[in-house]
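Section 5.1 Outputs to date
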Amino acid sequence: MNTTNVIVKTSKEYVVHVGPGLMNACGKILAKLIKPCKVGIISDSNVAPLYLNTVSESLSSAGFTSVSFAFPAGEESKNVSTISSIWEFLAENEITRSDCLLALGGGVVGDITGFAAASFLRGIPFIQVPTSLLAAVDSSVGGKTAIDLKAGKNLAGAFLQPLTVICDTNAISTLPQKFLVDGTAEVIKYGILGNKEILKIYEDLSVPYTYENIKDILPEIITESVKMKADFVIRDEFDNGDRKFLNLGHTIGHSIEQCANFKVSHGYGVAAGMALIAKAGEKLGHTEPGTYNYICNLLNKVGLPTGIPDNLSFTKEELLAPAAKDKKRNGKKLTLVMPERKDKCSLLEINADEFSNYIIL
């Protein structure tokens, strides 16, 4: 099996495994880390029918037992009600501190499973098995776990690093095209933050952006992204400094998601956020001229938006309201990730009431 391993050296060192067919090896990989135990598999209504049996059988063959819980797919489920149901499920199935959880799904599944693991019995181990491109390149790595509140995204959560991440690149083949595109926003983000290999891949892209056309370079795309994410996490595990760079496009992006009642997915929001912050940066003198057009060209190549989607209409004031409650706000200060040029960004701390100057629709 042709796999790549990326080591994430945080307070708890772990390995991100990237390659085809890895779901069949979940049990063997986990058996090298912990003794056979009960595994609570958390998934959603889209992913469980596709992969739950494969993962359960792999765990069983390695001596583990498993129980499973699947919730309705979508950001709407990433809430207090779902996490409460998961806690009750874990208690009913007598999950103990010597057992573990397994997140089988995309970013929503990974976030909510990680938060369940961090909070149930004051903390139990968990592993990430991402099935979406977005989860593979971003949310499965780094230990951030969270659920949404009515006031905004990811406002309740905890830091908990996984035991390991098992990224089966074959899973990307089952994604609808819009989710392949959605996850690519986070990949392009790493390019704008300085990964020249990623930028070259998308600069040279000359074919329609589909799984079939990129499947041969998909392991490279995911591995480069994970290396970039791991580098920021290693330097700043608890998000007090350099890790803030990973929020490029997210402040405006989260506002777009929330104003659209999450009918705009995370990657589409982040893409629009990256373009809009570069647009404002050029106007305000922070960003090298031409950067905005460069970012827009990359996003357009893969089918991502460069502003508010045409079927939606938000005022600046509507977008400002969620930002006022954004978890990245520190008192009256807000840190923006500002592109300086196509492959370099800086952190810009502003007064929160100045943020309206940085939204140019």
